[in-house]
Task: structure prediction
Amino acid sequence: MTGNDSVVLRVAGRPVGRYVTRPELPARLSPRPYLHPVTTLAGTAVTELSPADHAHHLGVGVAVSDVEGFNFWGGRTYVQGRGPTELDNHGAQRHTAYQRREADGFTEELRWVAAPGELLREHRTVTATALTAGAWALDLTFALTNVTGRPLSVGSPATNGRPGAAYGGFFWRARKEDTEPDVFTPGSEGTDAAHGRTADWVALAGSTWTLVLAGATEATRRDPWFVRTEEYPGVGSSLAHDARLPLPPGETVERRVVTVVADGRLGREEAAALVAAAVSP
Result:
């Protein structure tokens, strides 16, 4: 089922995600396409859209807080010496065309536009794949190309002076519940052990659901994870952790994250097995 402004992803005939192509959002939220709601096969929602704690968190998507000083994340911008600051520097991601649009996913082109004009051209592919009777996988690849003819760089609040805040890239705003979700990786337990570190995958286990996010390429696995559970539940892959990421004219940065969406609370062995099935060629 598709519409002019949305795509409904299906696994084994069941709707598991809605992709909103052209959302009508205020400029300070950095308007961009997003996936919401995303659900387990049993129908449990595992995303949130514009929650009260962070109105600019839009389900699942790609968001970057600093592209040459322009905010494609939404909300305030971290300014060294001033802290989070309201600036008129927001950009927008504009869908231009679908190359493929089917029940199991799509491929699209987007333009990242700010005050100077188009900064980046994006090629994005999203695919939904069945794994088991209780789990499926969301495979998202994005490739950002500098189309300005001049050098650009990608930053984050961390590279701008805010320790521990290296968010920017793929981001999943998860379901908020009364109890914080558990976090684990192949070799560690807890948010503090996962945040700001690399791991083949990181799992977020809620009351009746589990998300397992995996870097599916070498470049993606080199990016540390951004993990939050106390203030809100969210996981992302950091493009700019310790230093700004340079993007020369005509160059492309590409990342691929595959997320297992499962009913129930998975253990480490179950999570690892599902990731292996989801990421395998």
Remarks:
- Helices lie at 191-194, 218-221, 268-279.
- The CA atoms of residues 76 and 86 lie 5 Å apart.
